[in-house]
Amino acid sequence: MSVMLKKLFCIATLAVIVTLSGCQSAQDVSTTTTSTSTTATSTTTTASTTSTTIAGDNFSVYFIDVGQGDSILIKTKDSHYVLIDSGPSDASNGLNTFLNSKGVASIYRAILTHTHADHYGEFKDVVGNYTISGFMFANYPNTNSTYVSLMNKLATSSIPTIEVKDGDSFTLDNLTFRFYHPPAGFISTSSDENDNSLAIKVSNQSGVDLLDCGDLETAGMSSLLSRHSGDVDIELLKVNHHGSSNGTNQALLTATTPTDAFICVGAGNSYGHPEAATLSLLSSNSINVYRTDSNGDITVNVNGGSYSVATEK
Ligand SMILES: [Zn+2]
User: Fold this and answer.
1) Which of 169, 218, 243, 307 is the most exposed place for a label (fewest CB within 10 A)?
2) Domain that holds residue 196
């Protein structure tokens, strides 16, 4: 289905505070962003601008409607792809259809945030159908037979597996991917798999940043913020844990100050996601909210320091 893009206006400007981060050698650009948005029954679009723009510094982010689960595709300016999570194993979830519709033939990095089936289930079909140059994961122990089967398929397909943790990073074209969680040795909580989700910040050179922390819950976020509260000032937030109230709190929003938030969630799911408390908190922080259950596939097109959001419905 084609994306309906309704033209809007937008303005923005603002104060830019350039800080040189002491962590890693990257220059981190903090920007204050304003945006305007409209919501209609069939189209929602937001446009925002940071005040730093580098010509051609473009990328796209696709929050794919895979039902109850996460799958986020990132396309660089040179049309290389990174896939974060695959959504659940369900032939009707549309991941392969979506990838084919975008003409994706090869994936530079497939990244698994954590070992729950609503994040890795469909990788079984992605592996084999596309060329994958590397599979990144935290390698948190999991003996589930489906997960073990995926690991075996990666091995037999000769796809390199790459363990990553806090402090690791890689670049692809104009984008930098930085991992902020989990720490070495993992953390121990009552929800270990969620709380050891990989947290990834994706940044272009013009200061547009996306943060995806998988299903991180309160303890995991607290751990992340204890190490990186100064590194996560972003514009685009993939909402933790499908909008569960244990995944979003004021501390996270205060540290990240997102303009736009994206909830990957299935319609009528049995978990009650997203929870009203999460939606209320996002609203009280004046953050635009998009949801795959009601908006379908969601596309963010970044053009240097500005971006727009378009929804399938
Ligand atoms: Zn999940």
Assistant:
1) 169
2) 51-311
φ and ψ at residue 269, rounded to 5 degrees: -65, 155
Q: According to the model, what pLDDT value does residue 49 have?
A: 65
Place of tokens 């004046």: 286
Task: For the beta carbon of residue 238, count every other beta carbon within 10 angstroms.
Answer: 24
Ligand 1 center to 57 CA (angstroms): 31
Looking up tokens 């998988």 gives: 214
CATH number at residue 216: 3.60.15.10
| 194 Cα–ligand 1 center, Å | 8
Contact 212, 199 (CB under 8 A): yes
Residue 168 lies in a domain: yes
Q: What pLDDT does residue 200 have?
A: 98
How many distinct structural domains can be found in the chain?
Answer: 1
Task: Check residue 48 and report its DSSP letter.
Answer: E
Q: How far is the CA of 168 from the centre of ligand 1 (A)?
A: 23
pTM attached to this predicted model: 0.86
